[in-house]
Amino acid sequence: MGSLLPLIGVAPLSQPFDMITMLGFLILMGTVVNNPILVVDQARRRLHDKTLSVQEAVSQAVQTRLRPIAITTLTTLCGLSPLVFLPGEGTELYRGVGAIVLFGLLGAAVVTVTFLPALMISVLKITERRSARSRA
């Protein structure tokens, strides 16, 4: 990505992988872990509280959490973009943290609303089949 910046008139970026950049992974883990837990918990609650199919419960859970996930991702993207993409005084030190958190949160949001529901539907269907077999 840094080598493409000269095409739009911005100086190329290079970022060392140092201790401050590694701190970005800790920040990212603390930020990202909440959304998937809430989606799974909400889907399981909807599945037990109502007579919904697995797909409907997961779909409703994702629909409920989509706006908070999108708003969090968008505000973080807007807040960290200047730090990551605009060179200037003081940005050299914290650019790595910003890049890790920015792209990690963006990737986690995409995974949370696409891959996680598909995986959850598969797992819940398998669990549902096993519990139906054990009852019979």
UniProtKB/TrEMBL annotation:
Keyword Chaperone (UniProt): no
A Pfam family annotated for this UniProt entry: ACR_tran
InterPro entries: Acrflvin-R
Membrane-spanning segments: 20-40, 69-88, 100-124
Keyword line: Membrane, Transmembrane, Transmembrane helix
Residue ranges the record marks as coiled coil: none
PANTHER family named in the record: CATION EFFLUX SYSTEM (ACRB_ACRD_ACRF FAMILY), PTHR32063
The protein's name in its UniProt record: Efflux RND transporter permease subunit
